[in-house]
Design goal:
The chain has 379 residues and is α/β, with parallel strands linked by helices. 32% of the residues lie in helices and 24% in strands. The chain has two domains: 153 residues, VC0802-like (2-Layer Sandwich), CATH 3.30.2130.30; 157 residues, Rossmann fold (3-Layer(aba) Sandwich), CATH 3.40.50. The protein has eleven helices and 15 strands. The protein has an eight-stranded mixed β-sheet. Strands 11-10-9-12-13-15-14 form a seven-stranded mixed β-sheet. The longest helix is centred in the N-terminal third of the chain and has 20 residues. The protein is elongated and about 70 Å long. Bound molecules: S-adenosylmethionine. S-adenosylmethionine binds next to helix 7 and helix 10. The site of S-adenosylmethionine (SAM) has 21 residues, from helix 7 and helix 10.
């Protein structure tokens, strides 16, 4: 009889607007009871799934193991809830360093930092009472990172499994003035329903993020294969399990022949893009040139663009001219291609003078943006 592994609860966070993509990614990995909400998804699975989620999720920022729920009606209630939730000496022993972060909404904690401090006190006191020794605090590089979320009187406590945000894949040590987050780049390709067999072109590729995420998808490469994760420092964590799953994930990569290319009017950024594609180990898969490096008439594909939409770069009138020029490009050289274009406003999308089949509201950091799918037909 096969041994049943216990299911645990987790959450994964993402940018607003990418929850559906994240939910689909989790289901494809075999997560159970996937439920999305604004900015993330809850799910259940075993430890193996947690590790695979960290290795494979393209749109997740953080993955947390949920330790439990409780009430936080006032500071003392929070302290008691934390102390009775789990045996903290097993999770945050004195041999490990600790950090606590908190968010609070509609709660008695006007300043979430106070909830964080109260939680830290409760954990440290619990460990000291049980063992006579206490974990020390390290805000820079803690072994154990606890996350507390209070909404109204409801408390949810989790451990950061991913460590830092998963968007930092490690291939982009250099970037342009307004780089797109790797998670948003991967998410926009999914929302545009890009078929990894069809050519991909970015005429404003900047540091190359969308092209690199496309190449990783096309070759079925786990985006976080070479990262370190928070769970590696959990007491008793079996590093051999991670090594096995890392190796298995590496074996799943397959060669891809799809044409992926980019250009940009800024020549200096092109060398950054080339350096990034090389670091992501897809330098031979992506052509980055000042000239058009693929034949758009050979096969229609997806033209992606993240133009300067006026919030951080570019003067407003010039920005509108850029969208009009993009529309022209899709009506001439790239006739028959679909476009997936990011914009700040509906007017910018309309300036392309093409039918807009779908619009997806998204957040790029703090900025509200739109992804417009334009072109000859929707999928
Ligand atoms: C917001 S950045 C793109 C960032 C990119 N997605 C990344 O992750 O690094 C916009 C890019 O568009 C380029 N650009 C602006 N107008 C252009 C034009 N008319 N033709 C080609 N490139 C243009 C800029 O040089 C800049 O690199």
């Amino acid at each position: 009889m096969s041994k049943r592994r216990p299911l645990q609860s987790y959450v994964a966070t993402t940018a607003l607007g990418l929850e559906r993509v994240l939910g689909a990614e989790l289901e494809a990995l075999g997560a159970q009871d996937v439920q999305t909400w604004g900015g993330g998804a809850r799910f259940k699975g075993d430890r193996r799934l947690m590790i695979r989620a960290c290795l494979w999720l393209r749109t997740a920022h953080r993955v947390r193991w949920i330790l439990g729920h409780g009430t936080a009606r006032n500071p003392d209630d929070l302290y008691r809830s934390i102390q009775k939730m789990v045996r903290w000496q097993g999770l945050a022993p004195a041999s490990h360093t600790l950090r606590v972060d908190a968010t609070a909404r509609n709660s008695c904690f006007r300043d979430a930092r106070f909830a964080g401090l109260k939680t830290k006190d409760a954990i440290v006191d619990a460990v000291r009472d049980a063992t006579g020794d206490r974990p020390s605090i390290d805000l820079e590089d803690p072994d154990i990172s606890v996350h507390v979320r209070i909404v109204g009187e409801r408390l949810t406590v989790g451990l950061e499994a991913s460590g830092g945000s998963l968007h930092a894949r490690g291939y982009r040590s250099q970037s342009g003035p307004a780089p797109l987050r790797e998670t948003l780049a991967a998410g926009m390709l999914r929302l545009a329903d890009w078929d990894p067999q069809e050519p991909l072109f970015d005429p404003m590729c900047g540091s190359g993020t969308i092209l690199i995420e496309g190449a990783l998808i096309a070759s079925n490469r786990a985006p976080n294969l070479d990262r370190r994760f928070g769970f590696e420092r959990w007491p008793g964590f079996r590093l051999d399990k991670l090594a096995t799953l890392r190796h298995a994930a590496a074996q799943e990569a397959r060669p891809s022949e799809v044409a992926i290319a980019g250009s940009d009017r800024d020549r200096r950024i092109l060398s950054t893009a080339r350096a990034n594609t090389a670091r992501a180990d897809c330098g031979d898969r992506i052509a980055i040139e000042t000239e058009l490096a693929l034949d758009p008439s050979a096969r229609p594909g997806l033209l992606v663009a993240n133009p300067p939409y006026g919030e951080r770069m570019g003067d407003k009138r010039e920005v509108m001219r850029t969208y009009t020029a993009l529309g022209k490009l899709l009506q001439t050289t790239f006739k028959g291609w679909r476009g997936a274009v990011l914009a700040k406003t509906e007017e910018q999308l309309k300036a392309m003078d093409l039918p807009i089949h779908k619009r997806f509201p998204l957040k790029n950091g703090p900025i509200d943006i739109l992804l417009g799918i334009v072109g000859p037909s929707s999928r």
